[in-house]
Hints:
Blueprint: H1 10-38, H2 46-50, E1 55-59, H3 65-81, E2 89-93, H4 101-117, E3 124-129, E4 154-159, H5 160-169, H6 176-197
Parallel strand pairs: 1-2
Antiparallel strand pairs: 2-4, 3-4
Amino acid sequence: MLSLGSSVDIATLVSAVSEITNERAIARVRAWIERFVVDLNLCPFARPVVSTDALRIVACESASPEAIATLLITEFDLLSQSSESDIATSVLVFPKGLEDFDDYLGFLDDAQTLLEELGLGGEIQIASFHPDYRFEGEPVDAVSHFTNRAPYPLIHLLRETLVTNALDAYPNPERIPERNIQTLERLGLAGIESLLNSLDR
């Protein structure tokens, strides 16, 4: 037990706790991608990337708006400057700071604006995921929300060329959302929740 007289550096302790939290967040997101997105085939293009080191997953170390903005700018630059073989796609995880879905949507708007201001429109696309994701007009308990729900608030940065090539090579890509909803309806809410709850195991 620590006492007031302990020589432990509190800043170091906080940093260590934050690192453990981020490592857990990254592990959970990777498990979600592998067991939910890939195994249920919600994204038919994900499996080849997930099995390589070209999938980058990084967690924000702080809940502060400054840290969140810095991570976003850094990852935009890193993806745009890297080769596809080094980083095919990036997943940015925000364990703290964007828990409220409306706050997240505001952040998403800012991220899209920043993307355009940096001249990366047409090069990078943003896909959005949140634990409380809700599609407007859909019933609260609709399984369709789970196509964009993740263990933590996150954004997925995709190379537009890879997306275009994947869609061109895939038969009837416009049916993917409909098929995903059918997959989740067969699984049911109880099955979905059971699968998501298993991510820590």
